[in-house]
Each structure stands twice: as C-alpha cells, then as structure tokens.
Amino acid sequence: MQYASKMIILYGLAFFLSFYGMRLIHHFSNEKRYRNALLSGLIMGSVQSLLVILVHLSELVGMPDARFLIIGYTTFFYGPFAGIIAGFISSIVICIVNGTILWSLLLIQLINIGLYSLAYFYMHRKLKTPKYIEITLFVIITSSVVIFLASLIASDNTSYLLSLSYLPYLFVFASMLMCALLGISYQDKENQEFIRTLNVHSEELSLKNAEIEVLYSQASDQQLRLQDNLRKMIDYQERIEFLAYHDSQTGFYNREKLFDRLRHSRSEDLGCLGVMLLIGIKDSDKIEVSLGNVLIETLYYLVGIEIMSFFETISGGQMYSIGKGRYVILFNDDYENKEIIDVYRKLSERFVASIKINTIEMKINIIAGAINFTNETLEPEQWMEKCEFAMFDSGKMKGSNRITWFGQELLERHARELQMEKSLYRAIENQELYLMYQPQFNNNQVMCGAEALLRWRHPQMGEIPPGIFIPIAERNGLIDDIGKLVIQSACRYIYTNRSLFDHSAIHIPIAVNASFLELINPNFTERFLEILSQNEISTDQIKVEVTESEVSLHYSDLLQNLRLLFSSGIGVELDDFGTGYSSLNHLGIMPVQTIKIDKVFIDRILEDEKIGDLVEMIIDFTHRFRMKVVAEGVETKEQFLWLKQKKCDVYQGYYFSKPIREEQFSALIEGLIAENGNVDAEENS
Ligand code: C2E
Ligand code: MG
Ligand code: MG
Fold first, then answer.
1. How far apart are the first and last CA of the chain?
2. How far apart are CA 287 and CA 299, in angstroms?
3. Do 396 and 529 reside in the same domain of the chain?
4. Which of 144, 255, 298, 519 has the highest Cβ tally under 10 A?
5. What residues have CB less than 8 Å from 443, skipping those under 6 apart?
6. CA distance 65 to 67
7. What's the number of domains the chain is made of?
8. Does residue 233 belong to any structural domain of this protein?
9. What is the pLDDT of residues 419-478, one digit of tens each?
10. Residue 354's domain spans which residues?
11. Is the shortest distance between the CB of 633 and ligand 1 below 6 Å?
C-alpha cells in the first residue's frame, strides 16, 4: 500500500510537471502547432517514464521483476509496437525467471498484440487518423484494463505489478492528448484572432473593392474609348491600305500597285507579262496651265474612266493611274504588238469627240509609249522610265493614234536629236536654215497663196524636217531666233521678188508658221510689223499660221497678239485644225480668218464616213462664221473633188505641189502672171 501511494504521488507530480512543461513548450511553438504539441507530449511522457523508472529502481532494488519493468519502459521509446513486443518478451523472461508459466500474463500479452493489430488496421487504415493517437489509446487503455482485471482474477503479484507498469503509458498518452487539445484550443484562439483580422481585412477589402469598382468603371470607360480608337485605327489602317494602292482622288489603282504587280511578276511570272503601255495626255502641262489645278484633276479622272472602261471591255486588263494624267495598262504575252497598236488606235478614236469639263468643252489627244518586257532584271521604276521616255517621244509627234515603242531605234533617234540640238545653234549662224514654199490652190485649181515651210540642210545629216527640229528649238529657246529668221527670210524673198508679188494680176499672200512661244511674247506683233515695214511689205501680203491646239491652250496670252495682227490687217490662220483642243463652238470667238483642216482628217475622208461627216461639219461651221477653209495634205484627185463638192475654199497638198524652192515658186508665180495677163489681155481686147 505504501508502495502504491508513493507511486501515485510521483506519477501525479510527473503529470503536473509534464503538463506545465508542455504548456511552456507549446507556447513557444507557433508553427506546426499540432505536431509540436504531440512532440512535447512525447518528451514530457519520456521524462515521466524516466522518473517512474528511477522510482522503481530505488524502491525495488533487489526485486527481480524491476529489471524487466525497466526494459519495458525503455522499449517505450521505440514506439508502441516495439514496446508491446518488448512487453511480451519481458513476460516470457519473467516466466522463465519465476520458473513457472504465468498463463494469465501470456494471455494478456497475446490479447494485447491482437487488439493492437486490430486497432492499427481499423483506425489507421480505415479512419486514416494519426497513428500515435489511436494506437496508443487502444493499446494502453485495453491492456491496462485487461491486465488489471487479469491480475485481480489471478491474484498474481507479478501481473499486478506489470499492469501498474502500464500506467506511465496512460499518463504519456494523457499528456499527449492534453497537449493536442491545448494545441487545438490555442489554435482556436488563434483562429478567432485570425477571424478578427480577417474581418478587419474584409472591411479593408470591401473598401478596396469599392475603389476597384470605381477603377473598373473608369477602366470600362477607358476600354470603350480604346475600342472606339481601335475601330478608328482599323478604319484608318484600311484607308491607309486603300490609299497605298489607290489614287486618293479617283480611286484608280496607283503607281505603287503597279510597281507591286511588276515586282511580283518579276519574281514569279514575268514571262507572262508582255507589254507595258503608258498612255498620257498630249501637252498635259500646257492644259494644266490653261485649266487650273482643280479642273485638270477632273479631266484626268474623265480620261482615266474612259481608258479604264475601254480596256475592261477589250482586254479585261487593269488600269493603273500613275499621276499627271498618265495611265498604264499591262498586256500579257498573248498579245502581239500589232494587236496592241490596233487596240490603241480604237481607244484614240474615242477621244475624237470633245470632253466636257464643267462648262468647258475641250478636245484632248492621247499619246502612248510602250515597252516589251524582256528577261532583263530591271526595277519597276526602270521599266517605267523607259516607257515614259517612249511616251514623251510620241508626244512630239503629230496625231494621237500611234504608239512609240521603246527600243534601240528610239534611243538612236534620241541621240541624233541631242546631236541636232547642239548643231541647231550653229545652223542659224551658218545659214543652214532656209524656206521652201508650198503653193495653195482654189477650186479652179489656180494658185492663190503659199505656205512658207522651214528646212534645215544639215552638213552631215542632210535635210532635216521641221517636225523634228522645231520642237527642239521650242525646248532650248532658239525658237524666237528661228521665228525671226523665218519672217525675215519670207519678207526678204517677197521684197526681192516684189515685181512678181506686187503684180496687179495676182495676189499670192505668203503664210508663215509661228510657234505659240513666239506668239505669247507681247512684242511679237510689233516686231513682225517692224520687219514688214523694213521690207516695205503690205500687211495683206503676209499671213500668220498658228497651231490650233496652242491657240486654245494659251488663249488669253495669244489673244492679244492675234487681235493686234488682225487689226493690222495681217491674216491669221488656224493650223492643224481638228488635232487640237478647241471645239467648233470656239471658232466664233477666235480672231482668225481661215482654218486649215489637218492632213490626218483629209487622209480619211473617203475611207471613214464619220471623219467625212466631221470634215463636212467643220466646213459648214467655218463658213457660218465667215471664215475660209484650207484643206491640208490633199494627195489625190478624189480627195480634191470630194472637198470641192463640200465647198472647201483652198487646197494645199502633194496633189497640187510639194513644197518647192524659191526659184521654182517664183517661176510658178511668173507663169500665173503670164496666164492672168493673157486672160486680162483677152478680156481687154
Ligand atoms: P504645217 O504647218 O501643218 O505644214 C504642213 C506640213 O504638211 C508640211 O510639212 C508640208 O510639207 C506637209 N504637207 C503638205 N501637203 C502634204 C501632202 O499632200 N502630203 C504630205 N505627206 N505632207 C504634206 P513640213 O514642211 O514637214 O512641216 C511640218 C510642220 O513643221 C508644219 O506643219 C509646221 O507645224 C512646222 N513648221 C514648218 N515650218 C515652220 C516654221 O517656219 N516655223 C514654225 N514654228 N513651224 C514650222
Ligand atoms: Mg502650217
Ligand atoms: Mg498644218
């Protein structure tokens, strides 16, 4: 009894020590609290056990069973399972030492092992609880109870003692459980603290939430604005992409698109591209001056539409507008050059009729340059340059139904022209320029006038036609000197042959051609009259021919000079009528007395009914304005008869005479005088 009371007091002491120790340890172990609590319990339990061992040792010295109890306690540190096995072994050892088999003890250990196993499998495997808690609980409670009951039944001292030895386990477990519960309650407290903090945070969060909502609404406004901007950007992008490949004013494909096509074709199917045809408007720069910037764009648009619709029906080809009234058509290599020339001729016929721009009616001529694509690797700009070169050359030519092809021939001609340009300066000084006279005839085929036509006898190149060197002179500013030379030569000729020209039986006025560049000079008429008076020539003896296209283009500049010429009694003739830009309506207000229908029309009066009608209409109109009509380039009798029937007034052409030298012309006049003299004499007699 004394032993038992000491045991209880010591166990109680150990329990309280461990309890407060655990609380202490637990207090400092903030993290992994639950595990630390168990660990603390384990350590404290061990301390208790050690105390128990020491008590047993001191109290039970000399008692044989004490050794086995110590073994049993020590094995506790190896875990419950090892402890139980150790307990079982120690029971057997006790039996051997006592010399008797203590059946109750063995039975207790067997039940213990069975219960342990059951507890392990049931609680750990099925309930998945932490094994220390359940196993320890089952083993200790059941074995303590079973041993206690067994020792009561067996009245066996050793069993009784052994059952008591299980008590520290119970304390250990109780301590562990306590610690766990304390850990949980501590955690509870912490949880509450945490919940309080959470509430504070939650309030903060709701405040933040309100802020976020404001921000969100701002953001959605921003987003709407962004979407709007994005839409605008896409619109701009599309517009930019459109503009990148289209003319902003007209919507036609532009130069970039053309170059893109050429680049693409060059890398992939250049072979399929046959010809690039560049179409322009003749004298577009001059037209621009007369129409102004706004109307010229309208003209370019109208011309573009005409060309585009024409090629869409004929070749299905696309048209590219590359600016300044220039348009490109690409033909694939199915097209022969001949076919392209034919197609282009048909297109140029579309421009015979005049175009109406606002209230202004004007006739335009198209010009064209073309190039055959070769295997040469050239940049699109280079193909373009060559084509433009050809087109500008065609602009120098009369008429508008031919294409100039870029090639060796053109380059050589151009080189010759450059050479010519250089030698033109010298030509004036060296008197290489001279006049020929082409007689003009009336309906009775009697000579009634003549046109003075300039010739250049080049020492190396031979005879050069004015159609070639006059444009050069216009470009390099020599035209003024040349013009003066022409007027002087004609006047000198008339002066030296005044006996012929002043003869009363005839009146043969000489018409000289004047370039618009001369005529826009305000001093032109004054200078002209001066030369006339120097040579004592009356104003009815000479006429001035001015090209129709130029009159209509530089109308205001020219008008003054034409009026002055007219008021001075000098006749003004509108040359190359039909090839220029004026419409018939303009005739009435032009200070001219005669119009000269261009050879290109006369050439086709018999073949083309439409042209015939047009010429007839021009004659009618001209007569209504009390002007005379000269037909230029009459080459056949049929043409003459047709024109005569339509009441044309004067005829000039190879059918009657080619341009002839002064002497030949003088001889003709002499002949005429003689004829007329005879007629006069006959009449007088
Ligand atoms: P233009 O004033 O219309 O002159 C008529 C042109 O037609 C002349 O060519 C003449 O030889 C040619 N011609 C006349 N009848 C026929 C014909 O039946 N068949 C053919 N095939 N041709 C015919 P030309 O002399 O070569 O002159 C060409 C142009 O050069 C002239 O056309 C005129 O615009 C210009 N020109 C000539 N002389 C002068 C000049 O002194 N000053 C200026 N500024 N230009 C001139
Ligand atoms: Mg002429
Ligand atoms: Mg002419």
1. 200
2. 10
3. no
4. 519
5. 644, 648, 649
6. 6
7. 3
8. no
9. 888 899 899 889 999 999 999 999 999 999 999 999 999 998 899 999 889 988 988 889
10. 255-406
11. yes
